Amino acid sequence: MARRGEFALIGEVFAPLAASCPAALGLGDDAAVLDWRGRGDLVVSADALVCDVHFLADDPPDTIARKCLRTNLSDMAAMGAKPVGVLLTAALSPALDDAWMEGFARGLGADLADFSVGLLGGDTVSTPGPAQFSITILGSMDGHVPLTRSAAQVGDDLWVSGTLGDGALGLRVRQGQILGLAEDLRAHLVERYRLPRPRVGLGLALRGLAHGCMDISDGLCADAGHLCAASRVGLVIDAPALPLSEAAATVIADHPALFQAVLGGGDDYELLFTAAVADRDAVAATTAATGVAVTRIGEVVAGSAVDVRDADGKSVAVVAAGWSHGE
Amino acid sequence: MARRGEFALIGEVFAPLAASCPAALGLGDDAAVLDWRGRGDLVVSADALVCDVHFLADDPPDTIARKCLRTNLSDMAAMGAKPVGVLLTAALSPALDDAWMEGFARGLGADLADFSVGLLGGDTVSTPGPAQFSITILGSMDGHVPLTRSAAQVGDDLWVSGTLGDGALGLRVRQGQILGLAEDLRAHLVERYRLPRPRVGLGLALRGLAHGCMDISDGLCADAGHLCAASRVGLVIDAPALPLSEAAATVIADHPALFQAVLGGGDDYELLFTAAVADRDAVAATTAATGVAVTRIGEVVAGSAVDVRDADGKSVAVVAAGWSHGE
Predict the structure, then answer these.
(1) B154 in the same domain as B129
(2) How many domains are there within chain B?
């Protein structure tokens, strides 16, 4: 039976349907941008999460709700949009009882309040299969130009927010593949898997400052490849410069092969963006304003590929480019 | 294990989360209405459809796509909104191959073009369970006041578009519960189950004319009850006046008990609305403008309940109020 992968499905089957709709940006960005009645700044995006694919059945229901919301908030961050409201469709399996739903609602409510986002509507259906949640999020540019994947320029610095690999390593901890870790480091990684930290404030601070911008959901190298394709550029990434948490650094010191989780792991939900060299200080200054670390990890070059280099300048093989959420 | 039904879940668990967001209209209407940067007319709604709950696994993939889109278009019709664009999240089961997806895309593309709606974005994920599609739709009021469920007034006429019960009877035909029907009548009912006819043009024609308005997706009496609750009124429905297709009338002549499918069946996707008696001619005139029949089926009274009366003025028992899509 012939089956396309997700990217081929979007590119070959759905993108042609969106070709007549300029607002869709060719389905190639983190969100669509609509010129709403001449105000030009409605940003909208949708993400679905499936039990045992994007979260685990025994994750706490409040963190599942928050992860669903936060992956969508991360798409707004990637566009430099201010989140306004969401619609939630919930497909609920018979295994989920009232107490589970109340936990889910508690987590959702907490994050809606924390991120100042309204619940606009949605739908609730039953499914005999695994639970699934789909969120559509609406955001506003407030008159600013949206950040897109296609605006990276040769000569730009390449930046990333926060730390990389924590979410992918956290999934492996949950799956029992990483043992013997100190409890606080273990808890950090698991929390990063369960609770992405959407960089909404950073996205706002990067308005008018970043060139190319996207969030990392499929893994650094896969998403860097998407940035290259959209901007028609190449990227050189300095592997030793990649920011690691203490927990990730500890795991990788013990298991060097797990550095691939930093390069190819998913569930980062950090921002990957480019900016002019002349704006280096301005980008660094966003940390003071937002509390989110930003690290310069490479540069934009002419070309079309992602080249990850080690401390000696030699290219590093990337094994797991295009991580598929633990599948 | 305690489990709320869908309406209790929305009312008790999700509605409190939406209380701080006036645009959500308390989650009680067919869509939310946002005051987008002072232009006040962004209407947005989401609906999910699950295989073997809202469509059948062996339905043609092009009609499944079109049904997903059309149930959402029906929500825009209910608000009197002009549909603008949709986002689609597709959770695909391993059983769906490339040929199936191409059929799905072909149907989706045909209806996007027919209804002048753009594909704005979405997400594609894998699920080990049944296929599921969730669509969020955006529409515009073009400066008009949205039609809502809460605006019915005592003394109004009660109207319905098209014919009732066809979709619910079509499902029963597909399930082999109705046999011996002539092929053209059978085909009519099955097509009405597979392909709702969203009354978008009628919704636009009812701007400024209808008072309370909603679409019928859960069955006439259940949805009439929602209109009553939202508008704090009662409804008297004249059963002999309910509009039936030739196919439905034929089935019911043979099996009078199936009249319950007209009263309580789902999958109608017709508009149920109220309007002033003084506007009776204006409402009737929408048929000439839109090609969609409208039938006066009762009146709005003081009270809080739906009272269906037979030709003798006696109340009719409604067995299946709150149909759950064949579940």
Answers:
(1) no
(2) 2
